[in-house]
């Protein structure tokens, strides 16, 4: 628990509780807005590259890996079944973004590797789009940036857990958040 959170909890005043409630509500609203706009942004980027939005995000995740991966790893990264991941890799291969290659250490294994020229095209798009993004953080100090990074990491973990619950058909077992 953070110091500011414990200080907030130690105050029993309704003003603090009301403010925290308002802030959490505002955070939930802005998070929903951010996710919706990111989905639309993702669609626009995918359109520019003539890809499906899911294929774009798979390509994004593949670019973060240290090297070629198996289709099973593609399934893990995306949360798709192995069959769906295979079809996704098929589409990326037809579009020229990935190739399948035999694993040099185990010829029975097939790896999915990004095509360097297409990876560079993908990277150029992100670099063009991220120039203005970095300007959003210029006025923040290192501690504030570290706070944002921690938030993003927790959000990624939380989203992965929620995605797994949804895909596992466990939506009914989730508690509703207080409004």
Give me the Rg, rounded: 21 Å
Shape: globular
Average pLDDT confidence is 88
Return the string of H and E elements.
HHHEHHEEHH
**Poorly predicted parts:** none
First-residue to last-residue Cα separation: 22 Å
* Contiguous helical run count: 7
- Biggest sheet strand order reads 1-3-2
> What structural category arises from helix and sheet content?
mainly alpha
The helical percent reads 55-70%
Question: Main β-sheet: number of strands, strand sense, barrel status?
Answer: 3 strands, antiparallel
How many strands? 3
Share in β-strands:
5-15%
Written overview of the protein:
- The protein is mainly α and 179 residues long.
- The chain has helices at residues 3-10, 14-48, 53-64, 71-78, 82-94, 116-135, 142-167; strands at residues 69-70, 98-102, 110-114.
- A 3-stranded antiparallel sheet has the order 1-3-2.
- The longest helix is centred in the N-terminal third of the chain and has 35 residues, at 14-48.
- The radius of gyration is 21 Å and the shape is globular.
Summarize the helices and strands and which ones pair or pack:
Elements: H1 3-10, H2 14-48, H3 53-64, E1 69-70, H4 71-78, H5 82-94, E2 98-102, E3 110-114, H6 116-135, H7 142-167
Short key terms for the protein model shown above:
single chain; 179 residues; mainly alpha; 3-stranded antiparallel β-sheet; 7 helices; 7% strand
């Amino acid at each position: 628990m953070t110091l500011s959170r414990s200080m907030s909890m130690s105050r029993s005043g309704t003003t603090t509780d009301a403010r925290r409630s308002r802030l959490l509500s505002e955070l939930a609203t802005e998070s929903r807005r951010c996710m919706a706009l990111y989905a639309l942004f993702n669609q626009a980027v995918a359109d520019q590259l003539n890809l499906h939005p899911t294929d774009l995000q798979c390509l994004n995740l593949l670019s973060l890996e240290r090297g070629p991966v198996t289709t099973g790893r593609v399934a893990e990264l995306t949360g798709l079944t192995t069959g769906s991941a295979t079809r996704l890799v098929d589409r990326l291969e037809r579009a020229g973004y990935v190739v399948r290659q035999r694993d040099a250490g185990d010829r029975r294994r097939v790896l999915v590797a990004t095509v360097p020229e297409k990876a560079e095209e993908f990277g150029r798009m992100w670099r063009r789009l991220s120039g203005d993004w970095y300007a959003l953080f210029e006025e923040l100090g290192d501690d504030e940036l570290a706070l944002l990074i921690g938030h993003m990491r927790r959000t990624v973990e939380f989203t992965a857990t929620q995605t797994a619950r949804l895909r596992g058909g466990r939506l009914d077992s989730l508690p509703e958040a207080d409004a």
